[in-house]
Design a protein that fits this description.
Elements (H helix, E strand, L loop, with lengths): L1 E6 L3 H11 L10 E7 L15 H6 L5 E4 L6 H10 L3 E5 L6 H14 L3 E4 L6 H10 L4 E10 L9 H4 L1 H11 L2 E11 L4 E10 L4 E8 L6 E8 L3 E2 L12 H13 L5 H32 L1
Parallel strand pairs: 1-2, 1-3, 3-4, 4-5, 6-9
Antiparallel strand pairs: 6-10, 7-8, 8-9, 10-11
Bound molecules: nicotinamide-adenine-dinucleotide (NAD).
Nicotinamide-adenine-dinucleotide (NAD) binds next to helix 1.
C-alpha cells in the first residue's frame, strides 16, 4: 500500500481525498490509502481524515506519496520538499510556473527514483476523447480556441500557465507547436485579463489561443477548427463516462507507482508536459515584452 498525504484542501484536494477513500474497485488506485492532509489553515477532519504537519508527512515511513493540490504558486516548493524526502508526487496541473523549474523537478524525481506525475483531467473527459477521434486523420488549415472564465484566482499565475489545460488540448490534438506572437490586455481594477497567443503547427498552420478572465464571464470554450474536409465548431456530444476524470487520473498515477505504465508512454507524457510549459514560458515572455513596450 502507498500511504498518502493531500496538500491543499480546495476543490482538487477534496476530490483527491474522496477518491482515495472510495477507489475504483479492482483498479490500481486501491493501492493508495490516505493518511492525512496538510493545510496552512487549522482545519477540522476532512471526510474523516486528520490534518497532519508537514514535518510528520515528510518523516513518516508509512507516507510514500504526496498529492499537491494547492494554488499553482505553491506547487514548486511543495513538490521539491516531498521529492527531496523520497516521496512520490502527484501534482495538479501546472507542475510549475516556468519550464526550467519543471525540468529541474523532473530531474530531481529521477535522481530520487520516485514518480512525478502531473494530472491532466482535461484529456480524460468524454467530449475531449471524442474530439480527438473526430480530428484524427484530418488536415488542419486553421484553428481557434477561446476560453472564458473568471476571474482568475490569486496565486494561479500567468494565464498561459493557469490555462495550461487548453494549451495541452491543442498540443494533444495537433502535435508540437511554436509561438509566433502573444499579447496581454489587463484591467486590474475590474479583474479583467485577456491573453492572446498565436501559434503554428509543424505544418505551419495557424492556431489562435485566447484566455479571457473576468467576473461574470461564463466558464466556456469556443472552438473553431477548419480542416481540409470540414470545420468543427462545437465539442462533440459524448456520454459522460461512468468513471470520473479525477478517478481516471488516480488510476493512471497508481499504475505509474506500480510500474505498470510503459516507458514510451511515460516519455511521451513528459515530453508533452515540458513542451506545453515551454510554450507557456514563451507566451508569457512575448506578452510581457509587448506590455512593457505599451507603457
Ligand atoms: P482552490 O482555490 O479550490 O484551492 C486552492 C488551495 O490553495 C486550497 O486548498 C487552499 O488550501 C490553498 N490556499 C490558497 N490560498 C490560501 C491561503 N491564503 N491560506 C491557506 N490556504 C490557501 O483551487 P483548486 O481548484 O482546488 O485548484 C488547486 C490546484 O488544482 C491548482 O493547481 C489547479 O490548477 C488544479 N486543478 C484544479 C482542478 C479543479 O477542477 N478544481 C482541475 C485541474 C487542476
Amino acid at each position: 500500500m502507498f500511504g498518502s498525504v493531500v496538500v491543499g484542501i480546495g476543490t482538487a484536494g477534496f476530490v483527491r481525498i474522496r477518491d482515495m477513500l472510495a477507489p475504483l474497485p479492482s483498479s490500481a488506485a486501491e493501492k493508495l490509502s490516505v493518511k492525512g492532509f496538510i493545510s496552512r489553515r487549522i482545519l477540522e477532519e476532512q471526510q474523516g481524515v486528520k490534518q497532519i504537519t508537514v514535518e510528520d508527512a515528510l518523516s513518516r515511513d508509512d507516507i510514500k506519496v504526496a498529492f499537491v493540490c494547492t494554488e499553482n504558486a505553491a506547487h514548486e516548493e511543495n513538490i521539491r520538499m516531498f521529492l527531496e524526502a523520497g516521496k512520490h508526487v502527484c501534482v495538479e496541473y501546472p507542475m510549475a510556473m516556468t519550464h526550467k523549474t519543471a525540468v529541474d523537478l523532473w530531474d530531481l524525481a529521477q535522481e530520487k527514483g520516485v514518480v512525478l506525475h502531473e494530472e491532466h483531467i482535461e484529456l480524460l473527459t468524454a467530449d475531449f476523447k471524442q474530439l480527438k477521434k473526430d480530428v484524427a486523420g484530418k488536415r488542419l488549415e486553421e484553428g481557434f480556441l477561446h476560453f472564458t472564465g473568471g476571474p482568475l484566482k490569486t496565486g494561479f499565475g500567468f494565464p498561459a500557465f493557469s490555462g495550461i489545460a487548453r494549451l495541452t488540448w491543442l498540443v494533444d490534438l495537433f502535435g508540437e507547436l511554436s509561438v509566433t506572437a502573444a499579447s496581454m490586455e489587463e484591467d486590474q481594477e475590474n479583474k479583467y485579463m485577456k491573453m492572446t497567443a498565436q501559434l503554428i503547427t509543424k505544418e505551419q498552420k495557424p492556431l489562435t489561443w485566447i484566455e479571457e478572465w473576468a467576473p461574470g464571464l461564463p466558464r466556456a470554450k469556443d472552438i473553431n477548427f477548419r480542416f481540409d474536409s470540414c470545420t468543427i465548431t462545437q465539442l462533440p456530444p459524448a456520454t459522460r463516462e461512468p468513471v470520473g476524470i479525477f478517478m481516471q487520473d488516480l488510476v493512471l498515477f497508481s499504475q505509474k507507482l506500480l510500474g505498470q505504465v510503459p516507458r514510451d508512454q511515460l516519455h511521451a507524457e513528459r515530453c508533452r508536459v515540458l513542451h506545453c510549459l515551454e510554450l507557456a514560458d514563451r507566451i508569457q515572455q512575448l506578452s510581457l515584452q509587448g506590455s512593457a513596450q505599451d507603457t
